[in-house]
Write a structure and sequence with these properties.
By secondary structure, the protein is an all-alpha fold. It contains five helices and no strands.
Length: 114
């Protein structure tokens, strides 16, 4: 029996991001946070994870939020400088281990603000 595995290469534009310079102005952030890059800078990995992990509550329209991959230089501590639209970063453990779902209820928003 022959096993065929699909091998997909990462898109060139995603590979190019690895050469971008790091964002400045975040020296105040602990180095382990500042230096930790996301696994989800690869769109195929993000799509795979989203197929396995519920992020949006049942019965809620999926168009309330746009879930997007991050670039190779984005970090969870970065702000919205120069962004056209408002956004925020989240760790995947909020969804996969704490089972938080979008949209956030008042209790979840209160806890995440602390």
């Amino acid at each position: 029996m022959e096993i065929v595995r699909e091998i997909r290469e990462d898109p060139p534009e995603e590979l190019e991001e690895s050469n971008w310079p790091a964002k400045g102005g975040y020296a105040w952030v602990a180095s382990d946070v500042r230096d930790q890059s996301s696994l989800f800078r690869w769109s195929r990995l993000l799509n795979s994870w989203l197929n396995c992990t519920p992020v949006i509550s049942r019965g809620v329209s999926g168009d309330i939020v746009s879930l997007e991959r991050v670039s190779a230089i984005d970090r969870v501590c970065h702000g919205q400088e120069g962004a056209a639209e408002k956004f925020f970063y989240m760790y995947m453990c909020h969804f996969s281990q704490l089972h938080i779902r979008l949209p956030f209820d008042d209790f979840t928003m209160g806890v995440l603000r602390v």
